[in-house]
């Protein structure tokens, strides 16, 4: 079984994915970490030195590499992965089960303000501009996110509760 977790930046995909994989005795891969390891460069440096178009190209290649493998695993995508290179169509042609971890703008903004520097897309924005940016971006990206097999609202839920709810969806 392959389980793919998707959602906006700072929605908790990696934390939830790690915990879910542990409960299911599956390997866990975070796509951003995988890219950093393969490219021997941080995501921020890839954006800075090679640009977003290059990043989206390799993100697509590594996504395919992981999903075409025989390994059973939990995979957390980057926030933009579903929205480029027809990645959602590709994911839906594999036998992976995809879950959109849906969060409100308010929660995302609170979290992003705390960890802005790690996110190249928001790092240079003024704090007052972040809400406006996230609202518009989430609206655009929602079209792709909603193509997941399941949409799970996760605001105000503990990690344990979210993991349990995902396990119920998988049955
Ligand atoms: C991105 C999200 C990031 C990372 C890159 C681009 C995006 O992943 O892939 O900075 O376009 O939303 P996280 O969602 O893990 O922050």
TrEMBL record:
Residues reported in the UniProt entry to bind substrate: 32, 56, 79, 141
GO cellular component term of the entry, any: cytosol
TM helices/strands, residue ranges: none
Molecular-function annotations in GO: ATP binding; magnesium ion binding; shikimate kinase activity
Binding site residues for Mg(2+): 14
Principal location listed in the UniProt entry: cytoplasm
Pathway connected to this protein: Metabolic intermediate biosynthesis; chorismate biosynthesis; chorismate from D-erythrose 4-phosphate and phosphoenolpyruvate: step 5/7
Listed SUPFAM superfamilies: P-loop containing nucleoside triphosphate hydrolases
Superkingdom field: Bacteria
Keyword Metal-binding part of the UniProt annotation: yes
Binding positions for ATP per the UniProt entry: 10-15, 119
Oligomer and partners: Monomer.
Name recorded for this polypeptide: Shikimate kinase
Native source organism of the sequence: Polaribacter pectinis
Name of the encoding gene: aroK
